[in-house]
């Protein structure tokens, strides 16, 4: 156990976050996401909600401030609706650690899948909220 690092971040996830370079992306995927279909590097965080994982990751992780969209979520499919409580919970964790973070960008499901193919890793969580997936783009850690 390390001090200052949430128990929600296991050794493998800590290693992934450490090895990522600026501009690399990590997908925090809900429990229904087909992670292994779209990326070869999949970690498990079963039972962990994404808002809680964001609260654990963001003290260690700088969002990329050289792009307009370091935070990306999946847009609802036609006929579906988003639960605003999901993004509200995510924003609470984001704003706690990154108060100047831009709004979350929404992209279509298949664009999200394509972006997942290029991600550094996918973290499969226990999140059960529909459209609960989020991509984080890593920035440059200041000295």
Question: What is the CATH topology assignment?
Answer: RbsD-like fold
Largest sheet: 6 strands, mixed
Name the CATH superfamily assignment.
RbsD-like domain
Shape estimate? globular
Average of per-residue pLDDT values: 96
Q: Give the class from helix and strand content and strand pairing.
A: alpha/beta
β-strand amount: 15-25%
User: How many domains in all?
Assistant: 1
Q: For the CA atoms, what is the radius of gyration?
A: 14 Å
> Major sheet: order of its strands?
2-5-1-6-3-4
Query: Termini distance?
Result: 25 Å
For the record, the CATH class is Alpha Beta
Overall strand count? 6
Listing every helix as H and every strand as E from the N terminus to the C terminus, the arrangement reads HEHEHEHEHEE
CATH architecture: 3-Layer(aba) Sandwich
Q: Please, how many helices?
A: 5
Question: What are the low-pLDDT stretches, counting only 5+ consecutive residues below 50?
Answer: none
